[in-house]
Amino acid sequence: MKTIEFTMPLFSLPPPYQQLALVTNSDGTFLGQYPGSSVPNPQRPGQPDHPNLDEYPIVCGGQYLAAYSATGHKHSRPGIVLENNGPVPIYQKGNPRFPAQDKAATFIHVHEGDKNTWRGSAGCMTLAKDGGKWMDGLFGEGEQVLVIIPDPFWFAFEGK
Prior knowledge:
By secondary structure, the chain is mainly β. The chain has one helix spanning 131-138; strands spanning 2-6, 19-24, 30-37, 43-44, 47-51, 62-73, 77-82, 88-89, 104-105, 109-112, 125-127, 144-149.
């Protein structure tokens, strides 16, 4: 099983993708590193002076079983689907988008960001633009992937 491990933020990288997604094979062979982010957009859309801690769910640090699908994100874009679209724990006291989900979020994916200047994430992990292209060549349809996310405590201070 391949692994995608997101690093802690590297503020030497340009925003909005200030983490690296390190990809390794099951035998530990390093397959590549790609700019990305394990947290959603740092501000609310159109309101750069408002951090989004109460706008989108932020997935807790941990290890998540996932699978690649060429149409896994929004049924049309390449994505790595965490926990079969089931619930994953979130950092906040409740899901800002879906209060009935309590301290969880569903339909969390690793996918290509919308732009090189905007993650386009409402809770998912994102890769810099064109990340979907490398996913297609690196993962086979249905291939299981272990996704490792660092603790997002640092994100609470981003944008403040």
